[in-house]
Amino acid sequence: MKKVLMLVAAFMFAPMAAQAAQFEEGKHYTVINNGPGSAKPEITEYFSFFCGHCFNFATTVLPKIKQTLPEGVSFNQNHVEFIGRDMGIEMSRAFAVAHQLNVEKKIEDAIFRAIHVNKQRFATRDDIRKVFIANGVAGKDFDAAANSFMVNAQMSKMKRDTENAKISGVPALVVNGKYRVETGAVKSYDELLEIAYYLAQNK
Question: Terminus-to-terminus CA distance in the chain, angstroms?
């Protein structure tokens, strides 16, 4: 029986191993630093609320990640500032505020839909503030968080990590703080996740 189970497992993992062998540095992924990676396996998505592809990723791929993320691997998100000019910075602030107030899921969905479904134009921080209020966050809580040390620190880290990873387009995935998945080499989001999961577990 033990031999049978081992054979079944071998057949199950054979296609994955064959696929993993085809993932090449410089083609499917790039090493973004020569030092050690993160202490624990992690996958970080870089995105912008203004990016239509990121909205599609959020609605179609993120649910799949939550269902298939390998055990022991964490998933994080970083908002980038380089799309939307000054409002790109304010959207990074909005993401950090939502994180600090523990309303990420609700606010992320609301902002994405406001921009890409309702075609709302955001011109000031107050426009963002109204979205928070409409989704149950008190104005005073938004104001306090928006100007807090924690939010400013998170924004600084996201910007620094974006620059260190040389992110120029989104959505993008960085694995273990060391490998950037090259989206130009993949044919589908499923393949993108295959590469990210492989790197998280084997690199």
Answer: 33
Strand partners, 147: none
Q: How many CB atoms lie within 10 A of CB 141?
A: 16
pTM (predicted TM-score): 0.87
Residue type, 158: M
Amino acid identity at 128: I
Strand ordering across the sheet containing 172-175: 29-31, 179-181, 172-175, 42-47, 74-79
Show the domains of the chain with their CATH numbers: 39-202 (3.40.30.10)
> Which residues lie below 8 Å from residue 191, measured CB to CB, with a gap of 6+?
none
pLDDT at residue 9, rounded to an integer: 39
Beta strand residue intervals within 2-58, DSSP E: 29-31, 42-47
